Amino acid sequence: MRTIVCTLVAMAALLAGYPQAAHGQVRAKAAVTCVSAGQVLEYDCTIRLANARSGEPLSGLTVSVGADMPSMPGMHNVRPVKATEQAEKGVYQVRLELEMHGDWAVQIDLRGAVRDRVIATLRFEEKEVTDVKPSSSRRGH
Amino acid sequence: MIDIIQNTIDGVMIGSSYGLLALGFTVIFGVMRRLNLSYGPTVMIGAYFGTVLYLDFGAGLLAVAAAVVTGAVISGIYVERLCFAPMKAGAGIASMVSSFAIWMQLEQAAVLVLPRHTYPFPPLATGAALEIGSLLVRPDHVIMLVSALLLAAIVQLGFYHTRFGLGLRAVIANPIAANLIGVDVKRSVMLAFAAASAIGGVAGFLVLAVDQQVTPMFGMWATLKGLIAMMIGGLGSIPGALLGGLVLGVVEVHSHWLFGPQVRDLFAYFVLFAFLVARPGGLLGGAADVELSHRT
Amino acid sequence: MDDYLVSVLSNIGVISFVALSAYLLLLTGEISFGQQAFFAIGAYAAGVATAMWGWPLALGIAWGAAAGAACAVSLGIPTLRLRGLQFAIATLAFAEMVRILFELLRYQIEIDGEPVGPNGSDGFRSIRYIFDHNIETFDFMMLIYAMLAVTLGGFMLLERSRLGVIFRMIGEDATLASLQGIAVARYKVLAAGIAGALAAVGGGLYAHLTTYVEPRAFDVMLGVHSLAYGLIGGLGTALGPLLGVVIDVGLLESVRLFAGYRMIIFGGLVALLLIVRPRGLLDERLVHRIGRLFRNTISGTTRTGRGPR
């Protein structure tokens, strides 16, 4: 029993502490706008991806978009869907189906030449979608 | 100086509704010694009943109030039947977790019926605020306070001056003995639950009519406020529930004025915590403990 | 392995830590609605360590665990004389205070020309350790499960050890336990500290998994959920809370067919389950029976104990 525990601890430490080469990673930034797609709780989102430092649009990436409700992590999350790149460089389109109206953290996962994750918090209402401003009065109801 | 008085008045007004919510909690808790996490959501279901009536049928204020109370009572009995009645003695935590599961259920049901984030609710009283000297008092706040006091008085009367109340007090003191002398314990508990839900329904109606809007967050909000007020005032005490509500209301309004909404909530919780650590019985309550320990 | 499956399994792993945290306190007889506070503390502390101070992951999470344990002890001591509902509400009040404090916390430094750090309600973004160090999501999941396995091993050892017996004794009847000479207060604080550290480890892993935390994620719902997992899965063994998490997150995912009705069905199922099994699926009786069956099979005795066949 003890050997098992020790081996597991060693494994964990190895995985955790092993210095991986820290590349000069490219960081992405995203501008997300969504509009209602006709059906209730369906939205079409346009995502503009750019290099966070140079501003250059990032194209040719595999982009998958998921969503999770910030107030209940893991409880309402939306299965990630692949976004399709549009004609304009760095612009991707995706349709999201949500479970409820309210605030959602949209998770944009990038793979390919750039590996990153960007999160945009938006408020999805019946007719429109807005950016969430921080520290609004949370009076509960 | 005027601000302090104004804020205290406002605090008392808002606090009266907290007190009512706490009252409902206290009744259930006193009789069953278990925590009902679905209390707020049942009130919210009632509120949604009322809202549907208001929006789709243009019903008047009293009809909406009746709908809110009815809805609260129906869902309250549903919770009682599913989460509390079937549990044997000693399954206090199971009841609590079960009521939590039903909380989630009710919340989702409400969102399905009315999916938007906020809905209008009929106002309690329109009209300008009354001016007494340089103090402003909103008429709807006054109605809320008066209604709350009236309801609390009715509950107190019912509890101490009716046969049913006597039976309930017997059940609270010792359920086995009460059973032996002929009190139908199960029925009393169910009726107490219904009464508590009705009280909650009235409280919810008053709060929403003052706020003039309903949101799906109302369920959790009502549960939290009622719980905090009950703990401050003292478990199982009717005047304590009201007093706790008033204290909470006053603390909230003052801290909101001084520090803003977030610190207001921080303060409310801090006051609660301080009370619990220093004086677990609350202001007026006894050392009544809960059937929540997992072995009893 | 499909990315989505990896993320669901990682979620299960991370949430299991909070569930185990609440479970440990339940063993000592206390209901806590506040373990999410230590989850939050662990998340923020570890995030600050790796994203702002440039520490390696293991150190960051260890620091988060220490912070969680310290805060848990500072909560455990003043609440020592509280029992039952008062204790539960006190932990809830504490957790909400912590959450609101995080809503007010602003601590940012500039890295590469961008502000990084907790920013009040806006949360703490860009906890990019696994991206900056090219750690695959699958590998991170394995890390989570490796740590979970270690934790479970710890619990198994605990169940057989004197400490575990002491905890359960305190849970059964604290007065009786103290009459037996057990320093109840000390052990309760110990349990609180360990539970705090557990939840904080989960938080640290969570922060790096999602790269983004905000105070809203650490509200009462998480606290009550973590308690519920133990109740659903069973209080007889540390596998119980784990089972609870798997059922909740797993069922929630599979019942996705009933998209808008998930909670209605799930809530109803849980309520019905609790009527039939008020101490969860793997409750103490069942675990005891399984243990006995196991031992009988191994030793070859019949159930009447008449010796090898």
Description:
The complex is a heterotrimer of chains A (141), B (296) and C (309). By secondary structure, chain A is mainly beta. Chain A contains one helix and eight strands; from the N terminus they run αββββββββ. Chain A has a single domain, classed as Immunoglobulin-like (Sandwich), CATH 2.60.40.1930. Chain B has a single domain (2-125, 133-278), classed as Orthogonal Bundle (ABC transporter involved in vitamin B12 uptake, BtuC), CATH 1.10.3470. In chain B, 74% of the residues lie in helices and 3% in strands. Chain B is built from eleven helices and four strands; from the N terminus they run ααααβββααααβααα. A two-stranded antiparallel ribbon of chain B has the order 1-4. A two-stranded antiparallel ribbon of chain B has the order 2-3. By secondary structure, chain C is mostly helical. Helix content of chain C is 70%, strand content 2%. In chain C, helix 1 (3-27) packs antiparallel against helix 9 (184-210), helix 2 packs antiparallel against helix 3 and helix 6 packs across helix 7 (162-172). Classes of the chains: A mainly beta (141), B mainly alpha (296), C mainly alpha (309). At the A-B interface, loops of A face helix 9 and helix 11 of B.
Short description:
Chain B is mainly alpha-helical and 296 residues long. In chain B, 57% of the residues are buried. Chain B has helices at residues 2-32, 39-57, 61-84, 92-113, 139-161, 163-173, 175-180, 185-211, 218-233, 238-259, 261-278; strands spanning 119-120, 130-132, 135-137, 213-214.
Q: Give a count of the beta strands of chain B, DSSP E runs of length 2 or more.
A: 4
Q: Would you identify the CATH architecture of chain B?
A: Orthogonal Bundle
Strand line-up of the largest beta sheet of chain B? 1-4
Q: Class by helix and strand content of chain B? A: mainly alpha
Shape of chain B: globular
